[in-house]
Design goal:
about 270 residues, alpha+beta, four-stranded antiparallel sheet, three-stranded antiparallel sheet, about 55% helix
Length: about 270
């Protein structure tokens, strides 16, 4: 993965990491300062905030001093809460599978595309046209997503075991592109394992340095638990790099998140 920290992605990452701890809405001036520390200029912050407002992720508000500010919408808060479980702890492990079966009328085929893209973004693998599968631990988040997008009339969800006929490990290798997933984990390690080694052997970072390092690491990491949805370890190749990537992020989180919070103030 060529690391591309877009302004809009970094704003979402900021709200997920620090913005929810603000008392009240986050002032635009604070967003400009805090995103500036990660290399985003003020015009890019303002234009990205406007796009997130149009998408319903952010709501315009006023800070205590009357200045312009932005608050998360209720849907955005649920999205971030769902993301917390995925990003920081992974979905609950289960021997069962969640199967989504959908059918969309031809005159609403745009919703068919939306369904496929959202199931893929949640980490589902494709079994057959209109049949997608994921670890059963994603059931709650999947339900939230389908309800938020008003797609529940087109989908049925089932939970159960894989009964055959190919061995489950072989089936999983068809349903997901494991080579691509492994490469994403390896690229994360290439980018962020050296930073962790520097932290392990050097002095504690200053608050701004910790904040910037954590924001960029989280912005890179948070996509991986969606691409790799917590597939059972015994069904993956023996040299699977996902365990090491998760361990690197977990230690970066422990070393940087709270130190960075000292800088991420209004």
């Amino acid at each position: 993965m060529v690391e591309q920290h877009t302004p809009r992605s970094l704003i979402v990452t900021f709200y997920g990491a620090y913005g929810r701890a603000f008392e009240g809405p986050v002032p635009v001036s604070a967003l400009i300062r805090l995103l500036g520390a990660a290399g985003v200029d003020a015009p890019s912050v303002r234009s990205s905030v406007s796009r997130l407002k149009r998408r319903g992720f952010l709501l315009p508000d006023r800070a205590a001093d009357g200045s312009a500010a932005y608050e998360l919408s209720q849907e955005a808060r649920q999205l971030l809460d769902d993301g917390d479980r995925r990003i920081y702890g992974g979905p609950p492990r289960s021997d069962e599978w969640l199967v989504a079966v959908f059918s969309v009328p031809e005159q609403e085929r745009h919703k068919r595309h939306l369904l496929r893209s959202r199931l893929a973004r949640l980490g589902f693998g494709a079994v057959a046209p209109g049949v997608w599968i994921a670890p059963a631990g994603l059931a709650q988040e999947t339900g939230h997503t389908l309800e938020r997008l008003h797609l529940t009339p087109y989908v049925e969800l089932f939970r159960g075991a894989h009964l055959g006929f190919a061995p489950t490990a072989e089936a999983v290798a068809r349903w997901w592109d494991l080579t691509s997933l492994a490469k994403q984990h390896e690229e994360f390690l290439d980018l962020h394992e050296p930073a962790l080694r520097a932290l392990q052997t050097g002095p504690d970072p200053a608050p701004e340095e910790a904040y910037r390092g954590y924001l960029l690491a989280l912005d890179s990491w948070r996509r991986l638990p969606y691409a790799d949805p917590g597939l059972p370890r015994e069904l993956l190749p023996a040299d699977w790099p996902g365990d090491r990537a998760a361990a690197v992020f977990t230690e970066l989180h422990a070393r940087l998140r709270d130190a960075g919070a000292q800088f991420a103030q209004p």
